[in-house]
Automatic annotation (TrEMBL):
Alphabetically ordered keywords of this record: Cell cycle, Cell division
InterPro entries reported in the protein's UniProt record: Cyclin-dep_kinase_reg-sub, Cyclin-dep_kinase_reg-sub_sf
Family classification: Belongs to the CKS family.
Organism of this sequence: Cebus imitator
Subunit structure, interactors included: Forms a homohexamer that can probably bind six kinase subunits.
Superkingdom classification of source: Eukaryota
Protein name: Cyclin-dependent kinases regulatory subunit
One Pfam family of this chain: CKS
Amino acid sequence: MPELAAQADGAITSHKQIYYSDKYDNEEFEYRHVMLPKDIAKLVPKTHLMSESEWKNLGVKQSEGWVHYMIHEPERPILLFRHPLPKKTKK
């Protein structure tokens, strides 16, 4: 049992080491990048962009609506996210 506790503690520690950038935007989307520690980054699929449930299962915490939209090939531990900004109404 102590081994399980140690693994759980390690997972918790790793999740605390997830880095979230400040948000930035253009006229259409709000963006942010998330940097994962190596032990979590190795769980990122290499074949596809992740669904919201997949990245949440890795421990990434963000509000609903963020989309993993691009694979950052030079550094796979960096996840790139975006979500649409609300449409501005014309007067």
